[in-house]
Amino acid sequence: MSILKDALFLALGALWSDLRGTSILMYHSIEERLDHFSSVAPAVFEMQMGYLASHGYRVISLGELASRLQGKSLLNRCVVLTFDDGFRNNYTHAFPVLKRFRFPATIFVVTGRIGQRDKESGLQYLRENELREMEASGLIDIEPHTETHPKLSALSKEEALQEMKKSKEAVERILVKQTRLFAYPYGNYTDETVRVAEECGFKAAVTVREGIVTSREKFLELPRNSVDRSTTFVQFKGKVSSVIGRYEALKRLWR
């Protein structure tokens, strides 16, 4: 499947290699242990960041993208970096690379897991002092990702509201700042979930629907392109170009 996907990405790339709009990349764990599906090896992550730096991409924060969407001033060939869940290896492995390249990023933390260890993978989550250090760097924006990482569509409106509010309040308490961005756990959301996110005061929210951000996007339903251990370098390059949009359009036609 990966070989076929690579071939299709290469074929599409021959026609649409530039990036018109902004690609939001979604990472989780940056770790040598690739038994965790969402992990990307540190050396691979560094290579990916090097590619962005050497090929003239402008890496902007998710906050800047949200402001540009509101002001209808989107730029082409921009990339936004996001990390979900708040694994500690974002601090130990990703943060040094981001500092070297001076790339901003947003980390969405599950606030009920701060300082704990993941029961399934054994991976450690970020601690409060690490959150503060990264936020203080001016490169990293820490934002909420719910309190317990549930599927929001399975909750009542009040339960979903509490998950978002408690997570928002926890991040604001730890970092003494106002939060305005959100990531839906599992990319799972409904029209009601979106209304709850708006009620909580979020200005932008990200999904796991792949594609390129254009001026037509809804602020609280922004697409993101997943990068994990299965993502080949050919696919990575496609996900920071207009190829991913064409690929997703073809997938919709095949369904």
TrEMBL record:
One of its GO terms (molecular function) is hydrolase activity, acting on carbon-nitrogen (but not peptide) bonds. The keyword Signal applies. Coiled coil: none annotated. Its main location: secreted. Residues 77-255 form the NodB homology domain. Pfam families: Polysacc_deac_1. InterPro entries: Glyco_hydro/deAcase_b/a-brl, NODB_dom, Polysacch_Deacetylase. GO terms for biological process: carbohydrate metabolic process. Keywords: Signal. One of its GO terms (cellular component) is extracellular region. PROSITE patterns: NODB. It is found in: Secreted. The keyword Signal applies. PANTHER family: POLY-BETA-1,6-N-ACETYL-D-GLUCOSAMINE N-DEACETYLASE (PTHR34216:SF3), PTHR34216. This is NodB homology domain-containing protein. It comes from Candidatus Kaiserbacteria bacterium RIFCSPLOWO2_01_FULL_54_13.
